[in-house]
Amino acid sequence: MRRIVGILLLVAVLVGVGQWYLAGQASDYIAAEPRLSLSQALGGELAGFARADRPRVFRFPDDHGPHPAYRTEWWYYTGNLKSAAGRHFGFQLTFFRTALKAPTDRVGRTSAWGTQDVYMAHFALSDVAAQRFHAFQRLSRAALGLAGASAAPFRVWLEDWSVTGEMAAERPVSMQLSAEEQDVALDLRLRSEKPIVLHGRNGLSQKGAAAGQASYYYSLTRLRSDGVIRLGAEEFQVQGLSWMDREWSTSVLSEALQGWDWFAIQLTDGQELIVYQIRQQSGDIHPLSSGTLVAADGTSQALTSADFQIEVLRTWRSPADGTVYPAKWRLRIPGEAIELTITPYMADQEMHTLIRYWEGAVRAQGTAQGRSLAGDGYVELTGYGEKKAGSAVFGRMS
């Protein structure tokens, strides 16, 4: 899920005239129209691309790198960090690859500017003490070293925004995240404390009833993190936990899709929880909504839509266009005796990018098996405020 893939038609136009950037501080900035809906975001022909239509054998470290046989993929990092003085920050750094042509249609290009792929990246920072949300977007072609991805050595980049890593067969040893835009910068080292978690059926995450309406999906759910955040002239040494989502697919979802609510929570008892509910235009929750509960020892169990309940307790209205988002939730997993109240650290963490969506840092408080616990995490909300979201997805679902 995390995660908004597509944008093929618009991106194809953008890269046709060279390298483009779209950037802005979401707290000050409203994206220029026209704004894309989810239904507009996915275009083009699917023929010639591989499909996520059956379980596969994952191979690491190779699968940390790109999968050019599929149309879309992303590397998604979020986390909650604190300075020594207790100042709280949330961050998002995400890289998306979109293929312009199927592998069967690709031909050799003599121009150094020629490319088969477009990359997009989002960088956001939530400064809780200042109640300030900074968000930026970049677009570029995979040519002239401007953007790309590789497995050995592991690297994903869009100009000077990057993730690099030392990878082993079973799990990454460490990763370095780096991004800077205007007067906001992030430089973090991440170290995995748990094995890779495969979602769905051995990593095949089904999002629709038809064959191929799925993705290959895994996560690193507990990444010990430390580094530096810079805001203007201020610099903060920070520590905390991050989360990595990794997904690739070639997919068109049902026309009945409206959007989704995605939750990733790291709990103080050593557990992690990911759940998402797919919202349909009818107002119903799709029965293929699902999740994963990761135990303190790294073992995991799949959750179906029948295993959890999400209740909206409060809403927030965007000052940009009046869109109403959920802004507080009660999450229950009755079979595990887990009940959590989830609250955003800041109300306004709305991403003003090619597709408008809300993604932000949250805190959780509640009980598990009668014991009190707390946690931090991230929530992504898409498809709100749109008359028709349709068959496309951008972010953690495709």
Quaternary structure annotation: single chain
Give the ordered list of helices and strands. HEHEEEEEEEEEEEEEEEEEEEEEEE
Give the count of structural domains.
Answer: 1
CATH topology name, in short, is: AttH-like fold
- CATH architecture call: Beta Barrel
Q: Rg from C-alpha positions?
A: 19 Å
Separation of the first and last Cα atoms: 7 Å
Sheet bearing the most strands, described? Answer: 14 strands, antiparallel
Q: In CATH's first tier, which class applies? A: Mainly Beta
Shape call: globular
Computed structural class:
mainly beta
In the CATH hierarchy, what is the superfamily? Answer: AttH-like domain
> What's the helical proportion of residues?
under 10%
pLDDT averaged over residues:
85
Low-confidence stretches: 1-34, 37-44, 388-395
Number of strands: 24
| Number of separate helices | 2
How would you describe what is shown here?
The chain contains two helices and 24 strands. It is mainly beta. The chain has one domain (4-104, 111-394): Beta Barrel (AttH-like fold), CATH 2.40.370.10. The strands form two sheets. Strands 1, 2, 3, 4, 5, 6, 7, 8, 9, 10, 11, 12, 13 and 14 form a 14-stranded antiparallel sheet that branches. Strands 15, 16, 17, 18, 19, 20, 21, 22, 23 and 24 form a ten-stranded antiparallel sheet that branches. β20 (324-333) and β21 (338-344) form a beta hairpin. It is globular. The relative contact order is 0.19.
